[in-house]
Amino acid sequence: MHSGFYTPCSASWVAVQCKTFCIGLYLNDGVAEIFLTCGRDGQFAIVRKCREKSTGVEYAAKFIKREIEREVNILREIQHPNIITLHDIFENKTDVILILELVSGGELFDFLAEKESLTEEEATQFLKQILDGVHYLHSKKIAHFDLKPENIMLLDKNVPNPRIKLIDFGIAHQILDNNEFKNIFGTPEFVAPEIVNYEPLGLEADMWSIGVITYILLSGASPFLGETKQETLTNISAVNYDFDEEYFSNTSELAKDFIRRLLVKDPKKRMTIEGSLQHPWIKVIKRRNVRQEDSGNKPERRRLKTTRLKEYTIKSHSSMPPNNTYVNFERFSKVMEEITAAEEGLCELERNKRSCQEDIAALLSIYEEKECWYKEENESIEGDLSQIRLELQRTEAQRRQNQEEIRSALHSANVLKRRFGRLENRFEALAEQVASEMKWVEELVRTIEQEKPPNVILR
Questions:
Q1: Would the N or C end of the chain have less CB density within 10 A of its end CB?
Q2: 146 included as an active-site residue
Q3: To which CATH superfamily is domain 105-325 assigned?
């Protein structure tokens, strides 16, 4: 596995759960507490809390069973206050272990849902941090491609101004110039239309996801979520959403404008990360802070109820089992391994089958829509071609008529030429005859003059 790419684990690592890090358990009076257990485990990774023995600093250990060079290369390249930090990398016989910054404040949406209400100012302060993190990624031509509430965490929620951390770069890509990249991945609810339609992807896909996240943050409703995956993808492809008065009655027009500029189907017309940071709804944060410092009275703020956001977070987590605590971590690990091994063979094929069927159905729907469009275009083109053929026939008939007229004119010219030749011959004959007669007259005159008497004067 990637020989030379990661630091290999020694025998003591495997035997004692790592000599350097206490992987997977946190000792507390003999009780093993599991950090981010089944509820946060992904299809390819398991995340556990760990503690570096030499320093006592706690980190998150991400155990991964798949190819991760791209994710590691990206994590090594990025260093930003609003993005999770990679501390170290190890490898054993079965897993690659990423030692990551411990982000223990939970998800942003869970934190906000605990509040009774939320102001737009509070929402934009958190959103500004998200935009700052994404701006840093985009400045390095890195697209996250999986921005969603579950991947927007708080470093520590028990501080006055919690810091946002963007996590999970499993499907992130560096966008290279003149290198077309296509893929169908991500979470259906948050993916951009170009992913659904299998079109070239770029940094713009992240901006669409930010638009969806902002919509949910302000309303507690998901703009494109349907009853099925296919319905969700169809809604995204058609950009089928609105600002229902029931959910947006207390939302400012600036906030709606911010969302509208992000939920644009054409990636080239979608607002960029630079444009988002310059949008009045985001920039107004600084002006509000200045006014509040200058004025002793706090302005009346428009408050958004978080009831629907609570419902959304509960619904989004409803399929996730709660975290578990075991006294014996070794027994827990063994049970989990046995359960995983037993379920893997039974469930993987069925999951892939269902996912494939849904993807095929979604692609078929898109294909049928495009086929209908192509049919309409074909009919339009056929009509244009028929008109062109008719004009061509008319031109050809006119060309033939012109050719006939030219042939007729040439024939007439030849006839005139022959007549002219005959007349010219006659003219020459007459000219010779006239010349001959003139010569005879001249000779006659000379003869007469010679014969007349000298004294006779002709009158």
A1: C
A2: yes
A3: Transferase(Phosphotransferase) domain 1 (1.10.510.10)
Q: Indicate if the pLDDT at residue 50 is higher than 70.
A: yes
At residue 256, the pLDDT reads 96
Q: Which of 74, 53, 65 is nearest to 95 (CA)?
A: 65
- What pLDDT, in 10s, does the model give residues 392-436? 999 999 999 999 999 999 999 999 999 998 998 989 889 888 988
* Catalytic-role residue among 146, 168, 206, 244: 146
pLDDT digits (tens, 9 = 90+) for 69-85: 888 999 999 999 999 99
Tell me the two tokens of residue 252.
Answer: 């400012």
Q: Which of 142, 279, 259 is nearest to 211 (CA)?
A: 259
pLDDT at position 337 is: 57
| Residue 343 tokens, joined | 């379920």
Q: Please report, as a single letter, which amino acid is at residue 302.
A: R
Q: Which amino acid is at 203?
A: L
Query: What average pLDDT does the segment 275-281 reach?
Result: 96
* Rounded Cα–Cα distance for residues 84 and 75 (Å): 8
Question: What CATH number does the domain located at 1-102 have?
Answer: 3.30.200.20
Indicate the pLDDT class of residue 288, thresholds 50, 70 and 90: low
Nearest to 111 by CA among 159, 169, 166: 159
Strands 86-91 and 7-8 come out as parallel
**How far is residue 298 from each of residues 15, 39, 141, 290, 293, measured CA to CA in Å?**
60, 41, 41, 12, 9
